[in-house]
Each structure stands twice: as structure tokens, then as C-alpha cells.
Specification:
The protein is α+β, with helices and mostly antiparallel strands and 122 residues long. The protein has two helices and three strands, in the order βββαα. The relative contact order is 0.14.
Amino acid sequence: MGPPNGGGSVCSGEVKLNEWQHVVAQVDNGTHRYWVNGEKAGEAGNKPNPPGLEDTSPVVIGTAGGGNIRWFLGMIDEVRIWNRALSEEEVKKQMNIGHFEIFDINPQQKLTTTWGNIKVQF
């Protein structure tokens, strides 16, 4: 576990190289929780909650933000941001369903998808 107030949290899960992994990080009433491939991988309490509506900072993915210079080295796909903490059952359910099952929009035959497919070919 990280320091009681502030500082980082510790995730004991291993994110393997060259494999797609499902990773969840959440803050719930001062507790940070982590899952890797549906398995609990760490929990740290006594952490400050996000500032809520007063926060005007941009959301960042792949770094801690706030001037932090540590960057995630890899690919990130299918990011989902929730406005509440998920239960362990919900984490596992979300891991097992694809984005086509939760979103009403099918990207097939859309201009951006078609353009991306064309770019890949050339």
C-alpha cells in the first residue's frame, strides 16, 4: 500500500508484455482499487478523492497527469470512464463484453472507419 495521504498506490498485478490485458483502476470514497484481467490486484485506502465538479484539469490516459512525466509505453484500446465505482462483478462483466455490446453505434461503414481502413492498406 502507498502512503496514507497522497503519494502513489500499489498494484500487485502484472501487466505482461506483448499481450492484451484488461486493466481497471478506480477511486471509491478514498480507496483506490485495481484489477488485472478480472482479478483484484491491489487496494489502498486513505487516499484523497478526485476534486469532483470543481476539477477543471483535462482527463489523461497513459500518465498520471499533473505534470507527471511517467508515460505508459504501449497501446491502450477501448477506454471506458465511469462516473461511479463498479462492483467486482461489474468489472468482470465489462471485461467480458466488447464495446459493440454496450454502445448503440456500429462504426462499420462510417467515414472515419473507412478512412482508417484505407490508410492501413497503403
